[in-house]
């Protein structure tokens, strides 16, 4: 639903629920216990989760691509009478292990349309894995009667800081590593986390009674300390580890196919843009030629009109000159005739 560049922001909102629940739970539970009794604590939680389930089932659409393609293939088969199937179901995404290593390594480590490798999400997890045991050890060994209680509370800050970094980093890593199977992986992660959360309270009382406050509080710290190397191990060898899982291998192959398809589409769009630009250049050149031809025709027409004007002007001047010559000749003839008549009269 979200590209890799926007996924961190979306997951930050998604991750607010696991941290907001434990924060608001004691507040809401306290009011419920004081007003309607402690038996309604689980009833209120059940009603709330049931309402969310109804709203989610009715309002959230299906987004899992293989299931959508399968439904579309079934519908087309019913409408046309022919058999249609999805490429995701015919075994094309399950190549050999050796081939998957080579192809997935190139897709995972290259920066392209699908972004960087999933292991690029792990540096915050490395920091968080170190902060968690530090905070737990400080919390455990400041729990003395002669030490103010606020000191232990203050030292829970590294634990909370590390938990936020760890949760967000692991969630992003699982989504990037399993992509099309991300929903199943996140569900499995939530179930496993909830199982630990439901199991530990069953023996916590016996643990504190038998070991005491300091060593009992140190057991989670030692468990967190034992898990510190895993983020560094996955950052170094995550590709090899992921390729041993058929679902991660299939997801990597799927992302590689999508990357090739996007690359082909980009090349096609580029060719179309080049062709369109070439057509525009040709049309522009044609318009320029037409403009030049129009300017030449207009100039020739203007020259022709000017020439005709000059000819008319020349004819007019010639006619005027001829007329002036005729008038002068007639006047000269009349003068000669008058002189001859005058001479005859004198004779």
Task: Walk me through what this model shows.
The protein is an all-alpha fold and 347 residues long. The chain has 10 helices and no strands. The longest helix is centred in the last third of the chain and has 101 residues, at 246-346. It is elongated and about 125 Å long. The model is unreliable at 91-98, 107-114 and 321-347 (pLDDT under 50).
Structure keywords:
347 residues; mainly alpha; 10 helices; elongated
Helicity level: over 70%
Unreliable segments of 5+ consecutive residues: 91-98, 107-114, 321-347
What composes the largest sheet? none
**Element order, helices and strands?**
HHHHHHHHHH
**Share in β-strands:** under 5%
Task: Give the SSE layout.
Elements: H1 7-35, H2 40-59, H3 65-80, H4 97-109, H5 123-140, H6 149-154, H7 157-178, H8 182-226, H9 229-242, H10 246-346
Helix pairs in contact: 1-7, 4-10, 5-7, 5-8, 5-9, 7-8
The gist of it:
By secondary structure, this protein is mainly α. Helix content is 82%, strand content 0%. The chain is built from 10 helices and no strands.
